[in-house]
Amino acid sequence: MIKKLRKKFIWITMSCVTLILIIVFGILCFSNYHHMQQEIDDNLSRTLMMQQKEEIPKFEFNDHKDDKAFGMHNAFRVETDLNGTIISIHAMNLDVDQESLQNILSTMDIKDKQKGILQSQSLAYQIKQTSSNYQIAFVDISANLKDMKNLIITSMIVGTFAFLAFLLLSFILSNWALRPVQHAWDQQKQFVADASHELKTPLTVILADSDILLAHANDTIDHQVKWINSIQSEAQRMKKLVESLLFLAKSDANRLPVEFQNINFSDIVWNCILPFESIAYEHGIHLHSEIENDLYVSGNEAQLKQVMLIFLDNACKYTPAKGKISIHLKKNNEKLVCKIHNTGSYISKEEQAHIFERFYRCDKARVHEGGYGLGLPIAKSIMDAHHGQIQVESNEVEGCCFQLILPLKNG
């Protein structure tokens, strides 16, 4: 998919670049052509009013090796009768061969065509008819035709190099621009693989227990109750996993409930601590709390309660016997800061960069006890929705400390 997306990105980019180059060089060539045509017309008009000069160089037809710029130097006026026979030639600094000119005039349709270009002689002409004769102005345009040709060739060369340069740049930009997409795509594939793996284990257990029950179809429920309990336990695990996945999917799609209201976060913390006091006591863990009363935030009570339960549950799971868990809640300027600290666990700097990734576990050996690795990603998505932050501090001596920071709201 990424390769197709990269090709599409490059194709669209180069299509736009090609269109822009065509427009730019097209405008340049058209502007130059229009300017050249305007100057030719001006010189033809002036040439029709030109007076004859003496001691002038000879003008050679079909000899334009100098490629001098056209203008009054390479322009002359011819007066003919109504039959096209030359009466007089008026030139400035030019000596025009009358015989050659007469041959050219014989090929021209001077009666019907008032203006044109003689390609073989590189001459532009304009005809003015009077009652008794024709006044014909000629201007040498060989240098300008060559300039126009050179401009077109130069535009094509520059355009080709510009196209190749933009093509190379588009390859580089496609790799840079699609890097986040590649990362998201890899995460999605890993997410699907991990979710499938986590669902496979309880499904395998349920199927195995079901086979055992089917093999003892004549037994009573009391005799097979342990297999039924096992099926129910694995089904509950699957339900919890599916609910977590659905929550994260809604979070990704920005479809989480946004029913925010002023809530007492101090009460939420107290209510979440109470059920863990007995759990901590059973595991020989000392639970200490310092909660500042009546600290209010704007948010969803159920979701913020879920965040606290996630961190307290992790603290109890990863704190060894005779360890300590401390919960501090206080006001810091216009922020609410809740610290959950536990001893006996350590998260390295490398692991801290990944702990909020889905299905990531610091302790790979404690797969089932540590859950599915979705708790912290869920907590982060909730905190992000509440414009909050989660900070992590950890060292081998003091253990691990998570800080939850939320904007305060007046109660």
TrEMBL record:
GO MF terms, alphabetically ordered: phosphoprotein phosphatase activity; phosphorelay sensor kinase activity
Record CDD domains: HATPase, HisKA
Domain Histidine kinase: 194-410
Keywords: Kinase, Membrane, Phosphoprotein, Transferase, Transmembrane, Transmembrane helix, Two-component regulatory system
EC assignment: 2.7.13.3
Reactions performed catalytically: ATP + protein L-histidine = ADP + protein N-phospho-L-histidine
Enzyme class: transferase
Spans through the membrane: 9-33, 151-173
Superkingdom of source: Bacteria
GO terms for biological process, alphabetical: cellular response to phosphate starvation
Protein's UniProt name: histidine kinase
Native source species: [Eubacterium] hominis
